[in-house]
Design goal:
The protein is mainly α. The chain has three domains: 65 residues, no CATH class; 124 residues, Orthogonal Bundle (Annexin V, domain 1), CATH 1.10.220; 96 residues, Annexin V, domain 1 (Orthogonal Bundle), CATH 1.10.220. Helix 2 crosses helix 5 and helix 9 crosses helix 11. The radius of gyration is 32 Å and the shape is elongated.
């Protein structure tokens, strides 16, 4: 390498390398440089109209030698990826990219049960301890968990439902034991254990079962823990769930609703919820409601939520009186239509 080449440093050496590579390869390399580096290199390119052939050869030789510095085995792994990404995108962006990649590699607990027959799963789980069954159901998709729950003995349903609601966090060790046992009988390996359980997951499960099963479980749960049962009920039906009502049920609900409550409640509603109201009203009533919504002054979110809560109470009252049916997705039971 010539003495002149040895004196080149930083952006000046990069500029010399770009000139040595030719415009095609240089353009590809330049496009990968950070913006601040591009500015410095561009300045050096302008100041360097040409380079000596000996400098060119020395620069290319040094570049080639640098590519082979690591010898036979090149480094890899997460630390190397982090270092590489940090140089390319910055420390914060590098960590974000790696976290996203690592998260995508995680497997959902009991994912191997997703394609299994829920009735078969219920039969396999029935001899297990109620806490074990609750652990499995808390990790399953709500609709499947509901089907499995219905397939259990009535006395076992209540115990399992209570344990789902009371479960907070499960250790990876306990989860691994249950998974290993089920894996031998059904499918493949999973390893992760997120926080599951509580009143909301149980409510999601009960929303998928038939009305008679729901009533039986909630009634028994109320005798055991009234506060817990009330908490579950709060998650059982929310304002946005009005789309689960058929048109006849929606028309019955609207007859008992206050016009102002509807105007407030629909302020933050999505299009599907608004459509459920408007298509079940007369054209004149729908136009009046739309006009009221557009002309009214801004209101507090608290007032909107309170109006929605009053509408939900009307829906629950009408359901308890068997005047409407909420299509929760369950089959059979007292809600079956014949």
């Amino acid at each position: 390498m010539t003495d002149h080449a040895l004196t080149l440093t930083g952006s000046r050496k990069v500029a010399a390398l770009l000139i040595s590579l030719g415009t095609g390869a240089a353009a590809k390399l330049l496009s990968r440089l950070p913006a601040d580096a591009v500015d410095r290199v561009a300045l050096e390119l302008i100041k360097t109209p040409q380079i000596d052939p000996s400098v060119r050869d020395a620069i290319l030789e040094e570049t080639y030698a640098g590519l082979l510095t690591h010898g036979g085995v090149l480094p890899g792994g997460e630390n190397y990826a982090l270092e590489l990404f940090a140089q390319a995108f910055g420390e914060g962006k590098a960590r974000e990219l790696l976290d996203r990649v690592n998260l995508s590699q995680k497997v959902i607990p009991f994912e191997f049960l997703g394609g299994a027959d829920p009735i078969q799963v219920a039969e396999i789980l029935s001899p297990e301890h109620p806490q074990t069954i609750a652990l499995v159901l808390a990790h399953l998709e709500p609709r499947m968990a509901a089907t499995v729950l219905v397939g259990l003995e009535a006395s076992l349903q209540v115990d399992v439902a209570r344990r789902i609601a009371l479960t907070d966090q499960t250790s990876p060790e306990a989860l691994a034991v249950v998974e290993d046992a089920l894996r031998r009988r059904i499918s493949s390996v999973v390893t992760e254990s997120p926080i599951v359980g509580g009143a909301r997951p149980l409510a999601h499960v009960l929303n998928q079962v038939d009305r008679s099963t729901e009533k039986q479980i909630l009634s028994a749960l109320a005798e055991f823990d009234p506060n817990l049962a009330d908490e579950v009920r709060r998650f059982m039906f929310v304002f946005e769930d009005v789309i689960m009502l058929d048109d006849r049920g929606m028309q019955r609900v609207i007859r008992d609703l206050d016009q102002k409550d509807m105007g407030l409640a629909l302020r933050s509603a999505n299009d599907a919820v608004k459509d459920a109201f408007f298509r079940n009203m007369s054209q004149r009533a729908a136009e009046t409601l739309r006009e009221e919504m557009s002309l009214s002054a801004q209101v507090r979110l608290k007032n909107v939520e309170e109006a929605q809560a009053r509408i939900v109470e009307v829906i629950k009252r009408l359901e308890d009186q068997d005047e409407i049916i909420i299509n929760r997705g369950g089959e059979g039971g007292d809600d079956a239509l014949v």
